[in-house]
Amino acid sequence: MVKTKKLPLFLAVNKCESPDKGLIQASEFWCLGLGEPYPVSAIHGSGTGELLDVVIECLPETTEIIGNNEIKVAIIGRPNVGKSSLLNAFLGEQRAIVSPISGTTRDAIDTFIEYQGKNYCLIDTAGIRKKKNVEYGPEFFGINRSFKAIRRADVVLLVIDALDGITEQDQKLAGRIVEDGRAFIIVVNKWDAIEKDSYTIYDYQKILHQRLHFIEWVENIFISALTGQRVDKILDLVDSAAIEHKRRVSTSVINEVLNEAVRWHSPPTSRQGKQGRIYYGTQVSSQPPSIALFVNDAKRFNENYRRYIERQFRQQLGFKGTPIRLFWRSKKARDIGNANHATKV
């Protein structure tokens, strides 16, 4: 399913300071089956030149810069939900250690793969427990690196244990991903362990929407990392979410959506009879898509109306799998009239 890059491997045997005994000491490591052992001394530097010579021979003439083209995918979740198992399922081999003991993964590990001609960087992370249960130490720093992995990812896979259901910690993690502005997908793992009938998946999706109602725009997929069920479909969803996350929409299209939205539902009016008015909108950035809305007074638009406008953008423009940010900017009408690109709504 997935191609992994096969890299040259050189076995360096350290602490071989003695020029006479170094070769004899290193020869004992032929039994590892990793090829010729190179005796070196990190302290004295002996043998490092010979090792460097053979390494340089394997380097390409043109160095490929890793990190510009691949999609970065962070695998996030609570301990023991199957994050490392999912990584192994992507690779088709036991690359990451899988254990029922929580805390097996302590660091964020990058793995580069190729799938259908596209490059991906999969970031396996430490399980994130509730803050009150985490003591200062290796787990604390591992969780911090998990949060950093979210921020540097293009798409996040939030892995949920189908047997445990959607926990409070899952909700907090979903909120954290939205706050960081990352595209993401909900991956319900261990689906093979659930007793099912014709309605099971629909009932579970209903629970997902109830418990995670604030991210109804996120795609979800039910998989088994153990059996490989539907794992091959995850990267297709990743591609779609990454595209939406980077997407840009022209100002004219944004204002067409605003015109239609205001026509169906006028902005609220205050008790003093003052009504909110949207002058125009424009996209100011992507990753995530961010739209500035210039209005007469931002305070006149309550949360219900702001959510209504966001729903209209999603219904008309998509943005499936990515958060969008709306910035409500108060602006005087005479300033709007001076803007050449302004479109009154």
Automatic annotation (TrEMBL):
One MF term in the entry's GO annotations: GTP binding
Domain EngA-type G residue range list: 71-246
SUPFAM superfamilies, alphabetized: P-loop containing nucleoside triphosphate hydrolases
Record's keyword terms, sorted: GTP-binding, Nucleotide-binding, Repeat, Ribosome biogenesis
The UniProt record lists the keyword Nucleotide-binding: yes
One Gene Ontology biological process: ribosome biogenesis
Protein name: GTPase Der
Protein source organism: Richelia intracellularis HH01
Family: Belongs to the TRAFAC class TrmE-Era-EngA-EngB-Septin-like GTPase superfamily. EngA (Der) GTPase family.
CDD domains noted in UniProt: EngA2
Physiological role: GTPase that plays an essential role in the late steps of ribosome biogenesis.
Coiled coil ranges: none
Lineage of the organism: Bacteria, Bacillati, Cyanobacteriota, Cyanophyceae, Nostocales
